[in-house]
């Protein structure tokens, strides 16, 4: 069994599904000969040819519109948006058509498509290459949003996303694309969508995160452990629809919750989790819910970007505040 | 000086506004009188349907409705030239094209009557739904054509947009993809001169809308959109070219929107009656009727009998629409996802329970 990185998990999942389902096609800018600017699709065009791994004209509107058309006619397109900051021209096709087609036609036409995009900050990239904009999509009915945080979850969740009968936005935390390797069997086994993953059991506080900040969240749990504080860590993984039950169950046990995300705070996905805790878990809470997030600013250019992204220390402090409160 | 590229756009018209042939060479379709009568009947039926639909809206029995008055030849040509296995990506007023392909008038009424089931129509199940966001359907047709290329199918995708739609990025993107991938694609621009209140002259500085396709390497043609024969020949040729691997086309069909944009619009606010009156002199149905009557293929007696049949059939369709009960409240949840998330199932149960309690 090979040890692979998160981005290799993406490539491996694409290759598996293309080998086993002839209706799966990959399209986007530079995905063919070049294998994608991050190399997520490397080697696929050699294996599957230029009509299944398609370099498109440089036009995100085209990629999205073609993807909707292909999906409605029986293909399972996996489109790449080169960066999440370039995804905005795709929104009309995703929001007005992809997520509505099944409902609009009472199930006659469907859009089993995936839009993959490298997501989030922390790689010293130029402007528009570092956004975390999942909250924009979380308000859209009919959509699924998935963000893996490990090689195994990249592999298993991407397989599930491609097999899902509806549109899935698959955001890949590019900061941890090559952070570490782990053994991932290339067996075509998908992981479940719509569920959170409990990465670490704990008693005293629940830390909830997704994407690249899972790294800092796990490190914060280590730091807390060293001080005798037992933190449970939950990777939300599927941002929409939200598996609130798993979060609720954990908070019912710990009585405390810290939500960590790198996206801006205002109306971020953390606000939805906090609101549901207020609605459904008020009497389980021993302390106010804490949110450790990016600021409500643009993510700065890279000289300052690490000052924007939530560091381990802020997570530890927030967790301690919840403990101090009760 | 070296010329890098030149182009010209052919304009095609076979019948003058009085239905007299222009020139001596008419295409084969002009002699297929049985088929022309069938298409005349389709156009005429569509107009009866259109008139009835507007009346239904005016009497509160239909929501906002987009009339197709004046577009009947263009739409009939598009629908009748296509094969059932081809894919149509319409905008929202191409009823004659859809009727020919098997969509029922009651489906159209259901859609404008506020019921999603109108888009679960009886026509080809692979045809696209009505597309309200302007010209987005052009790229869905391009994506369909790309799917056909990938699978090696001898099928063609056809989209229809208007003169306003030809200004949208989606239209340019679609024609660009059509050329880049050599797609079996026909992009029809039904130029009816008005995008709600904005005239064709304000849409672009280009002399024709057809020539936009030149930029993408497409075959481009402008036809008289009130001349069924010209429209149909253009469609036949573009479809044949696309089907045989010859690439994509743009066809501009020049017509006129004789009614308001939709029933929510009042065109008297922005255009002169004189212009509309002049456009009525060029309208497509009287023109084809004159042609067919002169050849003995149609008559006043047949016209009278056919109109009565149209009225009867439209009334049946209206009755079918009006007697269809609204969907139950849970219908808004039932086709949102194929694999239903827990929170949607919970909200559905809540909505059903509220319905039981409060009605």
Helix and strand arrangement:
The complex is a heterodimer of chains A (about 325) and B (about 350).
Chain A: E1 3-4, H1 6-20, E2 24-28, H2 44-48, E3 53-55, H3 60-72, E4 76-80, H4 91-98, H5 101-104, E5 114-119, H6 134-138, E6 144-146, H7 151-163, E7 168-173, E8 182-183, E9 197-200, E10 205-209, H8 213-226, E11 231-235, E12 238-240, H9 244-254, E13 257-264, H10 269-280, E14 290-294, H11 305-308, H12 312-324
Parallel strand pairs in A: 2-3, 2-4, 4-5, 5-7, 6-7, 10-11, 10-13, 13-14
Antiparallel strand pairs in A: 1-8, 6-12, 9-11
Chain B: E1 10-12, H1 33-58, H2 72-81, E2 87-89, H3 95-101, H4 105-112, H5 136-151, E3 157-162, H6 169-180, E4 185-191, E5 194-195, E6 198-199, H7 200-203, E7 219-224, H8 228-243, E8 249-254, H9 273-280, H10 284-294, H11 300-322, H12 331-334, H13 342-358
Parallel strand pairs in B: 1-7, 2-3, 3-4, 4-8, 7-8
Antiparallel strand pairs in B: 5-6
Helix pairs in contact in B: 1-2, 1-10, 1-11, 2-3, 2-8, 4-11, 5-6
């Amino acid at each position: 069994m090979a040890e692979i990185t998160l981005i290799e998990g993406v490539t491996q999942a694409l290759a598996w599904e293309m080998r086993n389902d002839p209706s799966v096609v990959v399209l986007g800018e530079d995905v063919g000969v070049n294998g994608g600017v991050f190399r997520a699709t490397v080697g696929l065009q050699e294996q599957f040819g230029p009509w299944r791994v398609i370099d498109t004209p440089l036009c995100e509107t085209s990629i999205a519109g073609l993807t909707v058309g292909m999906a409605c006619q029986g293909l399972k397109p996996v489109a790449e948006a080169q960066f999440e900051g370039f995804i905005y021209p795709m929104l009309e096709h995703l929001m007005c058509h992809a997520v509505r087609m099944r409902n609009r036609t009472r199930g006659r036409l469907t859009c089993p498509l995936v839009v993959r995009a490298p997501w989030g900050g922390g790689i010293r990239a130029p402007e528009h290459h570092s956004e975390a904009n999942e909250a924009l999509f979380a308000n859209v009915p009919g959509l699924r949003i998935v963000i893996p945080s490990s090689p195994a979850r990249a592999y298993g969740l991407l397989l599930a996303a491609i097999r899902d009968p509806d549109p899935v936005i698959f955001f890949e935390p590019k900061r941890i694309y090559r952070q570490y390797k782990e053994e991932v069997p290339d067996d075509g086994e998908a992981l479940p969508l719509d569920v959170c993953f409990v990465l670490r059991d704990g008693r005293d506080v629940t830390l909830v995160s997704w994407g690249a900040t899972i790294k800092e969240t796990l490190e914060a749990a280590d730091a807390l452990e060293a001080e005798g504080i037992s933190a449970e860590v939950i990777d939300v993984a599927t941002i929409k629809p939200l598996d609130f039950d798993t979060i609720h169950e954990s908070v019912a046990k710990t009585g405390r919750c810290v939500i960590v995300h790198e996206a801006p705070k205002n109306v971020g996905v953390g606000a939805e989790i906090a609101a549901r805790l207020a609605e459904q878990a008020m009497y389980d809470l021993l302390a106010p819910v804490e949110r450790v997030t990016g600021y409500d600013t643009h993510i700065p250019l890279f000289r300052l970007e690490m000052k924007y992204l939530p560091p381990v220390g802020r997570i530890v402090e927030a967790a301690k505040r919840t403990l101090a409160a009760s | 000086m070296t010329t890098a590229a030149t182009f010209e756009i052919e304009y095609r018209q076979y019948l003058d506004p009085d239905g007299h042939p222009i020139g001596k060479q008419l295409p084969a379709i002009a002699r297929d009188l049985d088929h022309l009568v069938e298409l005349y009947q389709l156009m005429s039926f569509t107009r009866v349907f259109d008139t009835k639909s507007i009346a239904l809206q005016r009497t509160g029995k239909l929501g906002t409705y987009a009339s197709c008055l004046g577009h009947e030849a263009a739409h009939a040509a598009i629908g009748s030239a296509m094969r059932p296995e081809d894919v149509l990506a319409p905008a929202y007023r191409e009823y004659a094209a859809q009727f020919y392909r098997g969509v029922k008038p009651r489906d159209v009424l259901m859609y404008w009557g506020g019921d999603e089931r109108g888009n679960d129509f009886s026509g080809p199940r692979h045809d696209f739904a009505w597309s309200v966001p302007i010209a987005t359907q052009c790229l869905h047709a391009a994506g369909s054509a790309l799917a056909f290329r990938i699978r090696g199918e001898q099928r063609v995708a056809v989209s229809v947009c208007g003169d306003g739609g030809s200004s949208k990025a989606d239209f340019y993107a679609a024609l660009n993809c059509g050329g880049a991938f050599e797609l079996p694609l026909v992009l029809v621009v039904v130029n009816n001169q008005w995008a709600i209140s904005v005239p064709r002259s304000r849409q672009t500085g280009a002399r024709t809308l057809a020539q936009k396709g030149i930029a993408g390497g497409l075959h481009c043609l402008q036809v008289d959109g009130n001349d069924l024969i010209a429209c149909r020949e253009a469609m036949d040729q573009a479809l044949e070219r696309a089907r045989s691997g010859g690439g994509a086309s743009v066809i501009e069909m020049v017509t006129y929107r004789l009614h308001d944009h939709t029933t929510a619009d009042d065109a008297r606010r922005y255009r002169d009656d004189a212009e509309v009156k002049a456009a009525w002199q060029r309208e497509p149905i009287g023109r084809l009727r004159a042609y067919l009557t002169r050849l003995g293929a149609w008559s006043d007696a047949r016209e009278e009998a056919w109109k009565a049949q149209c009225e009867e059939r439209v009334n049946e369709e209206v009755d079918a629409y009006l007697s269809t009960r609204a969907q139950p409240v849970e219908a808004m949840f039932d086709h949102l996802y194929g694999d239903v998330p827990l929170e949607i199932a919970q909200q559905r149960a809540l909505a059903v329970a509220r319905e039981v309690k409060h009605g």
